[in-house]
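Structure tokens
________________
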Amino acid sequence: MTQLVQHVGWSFLRSRRWLGYFALLIIFSIACVWLGNWQFERRAQAQAEIARIDANYDAVAVPLAEAIADPTQFDEDTLKWQPVVLHGHYTGETFLARNRPGPGGVGSNLIHAFLTDAGTVFYIDRGWVAVSGTDEVPADLPKPPTGQTTVTARLRAAEPQIAGRTSAGRFVASVHPTELAALDDEQAQIYSASYGQLISEEPAGATGALAARPERDEGPHLSYALQWYVFIIIAAVGVGYAARQEYRGLNAEHESVVRDEQRREARKKRRGPTDADEEDALLDS
């Protein structure tokens, strides 16, 4: 019995079935690692955004030309949320960037061109209004102040144009200064890579609901990332447990075979040799 049981090992793990299980485990583990690393990357992005808020949101406002030397460039990593001050006046029409969440649901953001004393145009987001992109442009939209104005705003990167979403009249799909300038027939040089979220105006004009302070929240990305690695451990433990159970089952089956053989041998000894066994023994002798 002992000798037979010793031959029952783990060789079944080399079967096609178990090699398939191992291949699936490897594929699953690779997918989990990729998803976990993706969550780590998203956490790093959230932490970078928190760092920008801490560094820039409450910083002292600087002149726009000092913050952005080249109107066609914008370094979001260092300049996002930085307050800037502009002197000049509003010009052109008010555009509405549609599909924007706000305090009253989904509406639009008021976007207006500001012509600085230096002769450049910088677009200002003057707050949210409860006007959807399917509405007619109301006549009572909040209007900016007229004449010489001092504006303080926080810098944001220009939004990309969205494929498949076009502008219609004064409704635009994104805050894309180049597109806005073309719609506004603006001939002056524009800040094409950035725009500003309004903080204050002097003199003050009517505005929409101004943007709230962004939250310092990195989200659940760390816990999600760790969960994907835990899933790998759970899957590996599950495969190991299944292998152990099959190993024990095979050994139990072999032990049962050995016990049956031993019982047959014991019965033969109790009965003694049969006539056939004696004839075989005589022939052998």
Notes: Confidence is low (pLDDT under 50) at residues 1-5. Helices lie at 2-6, 16-56, 64-67, 76-79, 177-183, 221-271, 275-284. The two ends are 30 Å apart (CA to CA). Residues 2-38+223-284 form one domain.
